[in-house]
TrEMBL record:
<protein>
    <recommendedName>
        <fullName>GTPase HflX</fullName>
    </recommendedName>
</protein>
<comment type="subunit">
    <text>Monomer. Associates with the 50S ribosomal subunit.</text>
</comment>
<dbReference type="InterPro" id="IPR006073">
    <property type="entry name" value="GTP-bd"/>
</dbReference>
<keyword id="KW-0175">Coiled coil</keyword>
<keyword id="KW-0460">Magnesium</keyword>
<feature type="binding site">
    <location>
        <position position="212"/>
    </location>
    <ligand>
        <name>Mg(2+)</name>
    </ligand>
</feature>
<dbReference type="GO" id="GO:0005525">
    <property type="term" value="F:GTP binding"/>
</dbReference>
<dbReference type="GO" id="GO:0005737">
    <property type="term" value="C:cytoplasm"/>
</dbReference>
<dbReference type="Pfam" id="PF16360">
    <property type="entry name" value="GTP-bdg_M"/>
</dbReference>
<keyword id="KW-0547">Nucleotide-binding</keyword>
<feature type="binding site">
    <location>
        <begin position="230"/>
        <end position="234"/>
    </location>
    <ligand>
        <name>GTP</name>
    </ligand>
</feature>
<feature type="coiled-coil region">
    <location>
        <begin position="165"/>
        <end position="192"/>
    </location>
</feature>
<dbReference type="InterPro" id="IPR032305">
    <property type="entry name" value="GTP-bd_M"/>
</dbReference>
<keyword id="KW-0479">Metal-binding</keyword>
<dbReference type="InterPro" id="IPR025121">
    <property type="entry name" value="GTPase_HflX_N"/>
</dbReference>
<dbReference type="GO" id="GO:0097216">
    <property type="term" value="F:guanosine tetraphosphate binding"/>
</dbReference>
<dbReference type="GO" id="GO:0003924">
    <property type="term" value="F:GTPase activity"/>
</dbReference>
């Protein structure tokens, strides 16, 4: 028989495994920040120098007894492991501690559940939670006997656990269907933006790198921004006007983290696709973070999982105000293309450089110039206006339209080719005859 599960609480003991494998090792400071973001009151932080995890408890039996005594002495409600626990390890530890035990995945899921604000965000979190829970349903149940017989009590002959699993499968199907609808709506919106030739730019980066602060500073928005992990879950899109380029759509997205649970990546695929379908990614990096190189690697891993690793990327080194002797600047590659921008989103230093770099990268295939269109090209003139590509119009003495236009070269070529013309006949103020 399993114990009756205790109610939730926020007094917690944090257990960190300090192994030798650098790939599996987690950051203890980041672990404490995660617990703080979840609202836990850390009573004790226990570091376990365990190099070979055990199958039953993950840690050795002696350490389990030590932790049990600490749980009782401190009267805590929760023990959090900075590691992935199997369902059986979680159950075994709960039997010994007689309190709730969650692992790193459960902790991150809890933070996501607290942060989700929109209907879509809540659905995505619930999907990840239910898929995580599906392997752990047996935990904590005291009524696994078959449903009782008798008038009004006869059931279908399945255990309570089987009933719960069946109901969970039904709910999972419902959520996935709703998220698929959200996904198709997002795809439709993206197609609309592409038809209007409005480039999309997404902010990506490690959690708490300052993406939302940068987003607010650039777009004059008021998206929630805080010095905590996963402050932003729900994607926000804003229109931004750039000099010499025109309008773009800037998207603020969820932050990444080391060993981001795969269930979360799957659940948030509709949101993350906003990044994978962008014309440019702004990889926001905490310039003051000592572990920033490891964080950069983790971001690239997640980008690979969502198929966005080959998109153009502009690195944005943020929090310049915390560094000494570093000025806002654009660093370029050997071809002169912007590669890295140093700025401070909080102080506003370097924001103009960021806009300049974005305009340069997105404007590579942009035509900016004046076209001379005789009156017989009135239909072509109307199409330029329809695309919002005309910045200014004048007329010469002969009544010829002088259109100052800004639009992608591919679009310009497409429009003019319909008139049976060649690019060389109109680019750079050539006259269409």
């Amino acid at each position: 028989m399993f114990f009756e599960r205790h109610g939730g609480g926020e007094r917690a003991i944090l257990v960190h495994l300090d192994g030798q494998d650098p790939e599996a090792r987690e950051d203890p400071q980041e672990f404490q920040e995660l617990a703080l973001s979840a609202g836990a009151e850390t009573v004790a932080f226990v570091s376990v120098p365990r190099h070979r995890p055990t199958a039953k408890y993950l840690v050795g039996s002696g350490k389990v007894e030590e932790l049990r005594d600490l749980v009782k002495a401190e009267q805590v409600d929760l023990v959090i492991f900075n590691h992935i626990l199997t369902p059986s390890q979680e159950r075994n530890l709960e039997r010994v501690f007689e309190c709730r035990v969650i692992d790193r995945t459960g902790l991150i899921l809890d933070i996501f559940a607290q942060r989700a604000r929109t209907h879509e965000g809540k659905l995505q979190v619930e999907l990840a939670q239910l898929e995580h829970m599906s392997t752990r349903l047996v935990r904590g149940w005291t009524h696994l006997e078959r449903q009782k017989g008798g008038i009004g009590l006869r059931g279908p002959g399945e255990t309570q656990l089987e009933t719960d699993r069946r109901l969970l499968r039904v709910r999972l199907r419902q959520i996935k269907a709703r998220l698929e609808k959200v996904r198709s709506q997002r795809e439709q919106a993206r197609r609309g933006r592409k038809r209007a030739d409005i480039p999309s730019v997404s902010l990506v980066g490690y959690t708490n790198a300052g993406k939302s602060t940068l987003f607010n500073a650039v777009t004059a928005s008021d998206v929630f921004a805080a010095d905590q992990l996963f402050a932003t879950l729900d994607p926000t899109l804003r229109r931004l006007e750039l000099d010499d380029l025109g309008p773009i759509v800037l998207a603020d997205t969820v932050g990444f983290i080391r060993h981001l649970p795969h269930k979360l990546v799957e659940a948030f695929r509709a949101t993350l696709e906003e990044s994978s379908n962008s014309d440019l990614l702004l990889h926001v990096i905490d310039a003051h973070e000592p572990e920033r190189m490891a964080q950069i690697e983790q971001v690239m891993v997640v980008l690979g999982e969502i198929g966005a690793q080959d998109l153009p990327i502009l690195e944005v080194y943020n929090k310049l105000d915390l560094l000494e002797g570093v000025e806002p600047q654009i660093q370029r590659d050997p071809d002169g293309k912007p590669q890295r921008v140093w700025l401070s989103a909080r102080d506003g230093q370097g924001l103009d450089l960021l806009k300049q770099a974005i305009a340069e990268l997105l404007g590579e295939d942009l035509f900016v110039g004046t076209l001379r269109l005789p009156q017989r090209f009135a239909r072509l003139r109307a199409q330029f206006f329809q695309l919002n590509a005309v910045q200014k119009e004048d007329h010469d003495d002969e009544g010829v339209s002088l259109l100052a236009v800004r639009l992608p070269r591919a679009e310009l070529n497409r429009l003019v080719s319909r008139e049976g013309m060649q690019p060389s006949e109109f680019i750079e103020q050539h006259t269409l005859q």
